[in-house]
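To start, one record:
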Amino acid sequence: MPNFKSVGNELAKEINEEPEVEVETEDERRDRLLLENEESIIALQAQCRGFMVRRLQAMRKAHLRLAERSLMKLQARGRGFLQRQKMSEAHKEHADLDPWVRALQAAARAWLARRILQSHVVKVRSASRFVVQVQAQARGVLERRRYLRLKSALRSTKVSFVGLQAYARAKLARLTHNEAVKSLHEPIVMHGVVGLQATCRGVLMRMRVARDLHHYALMEPCFVAIQAQVRGVLVRRRIGRQLKKLDDATDVVVRIQAACRAFLARRELLELIRGLRKAAPLVVGLQARARANLARRRHQAMAKALGEVKVVAAVGGFQTFARAALARRKHREQQKELKFYEPDVTGLQAAARGALVRNLFWAWRDYLHGSQAEAIYLQSLLRGALQRRKFQQKMKYFRENLDKVVKIQSLFRAKEQREQYRQLTMGKNVNVGTIKNFVHLLDDSEADFEDEIRVEWMRKQVVEGIQRQELRGISQG
């Protein structure tokens, strides 16, 4: 059996002694330091995660930059494939609808052609009377011009025709005279035979000429009609050629007419300006005389009004009231004009402010995007400074209250030891943990117990020295 006679004295001595500091294990120390630096560790982990994410993002961007050409080609091929597929589907649909569409287009073209033809026929019918009148007037003008040219030509050649006719008559008269002279020189019988033959020939010739003239007289209406038709055909051909030339030259004629009208308008405007310039001195003098006359009348009326005593006495107040009324009227007119332009001015001011604010925002955004690396570096420095300051405050508080924490821990452990020993010595149904804590006392003698107490005291001294060294190192760091 173990000797417990001096256990009570030793326990009483231990109770009266200062509570020993329990040695902190490595796991407890590690857990305590981790709990104390939990926020710093979380912040460091966040910074590391941010750095890793940024690095991963940069790597992805670099890979995307390297594969940009391939991606663009792949996207282009994909778009081309989708477009070709879409085009093939549309082509199939169009091929299915091709007969119906062609029939519909043909029907639409036929309807449009019929409509255009009907409108053209209606226009031609409505303008046929005017066209016929214009054609008749054009034919009349052309025929009159041709007749006038022929008449003028005949008039110019009248002297030549008269001379030619006189020459022909003179030649015929000379021939007749020569024949008569010859007949007088020949014998009478011969003269009679020749005369008879000539008479017969003349009668026959006159009969032939009379017969031809009769035929010509009978055929004259036909000749006149044929000549009229031929002249009409020629005139119509000439008018057609002229109309074609006019149709071809319509644009040129229109431009020439426009240029002529512009020239005439400019000439009229220049003549008007020149006339106004010539009349400007007269008008200016007349206006000056009129203004002078009006000014003299106003001056005379004002002098007449100021000549009265009651008006002279109140001229100052009247002028004041007049100026005030004019100022108020001018102010009201300005207010009306400003109210009229207020919506436009407000909208313009709002647009200007919006433009200025947007420009400022874009400039600030561009500056932030350009300074992103510097901002990230400054943020990391600021977070590090804040975390270090917080950690220093925690360490300062821990160093200031370290002895109190140690004392509280030692008192708590001593109390637990006393409670366990009281349960072991006085209690019943002691739990297994308490028995485990004091089971070594059952196998030790009194010398062993004293050695154990001495070893515990030396361990206590070592733990205190280690704690002092750690505190000294922390304070120096």
Remarks:
- Residues 154 and 288 are 69 Å apart (CA to CA).
- Residues 1-5 have pLDDT under 50 and may be disordered.
- The chain has 14 helices and no strands.
- The longest helix spans residues 68-156.
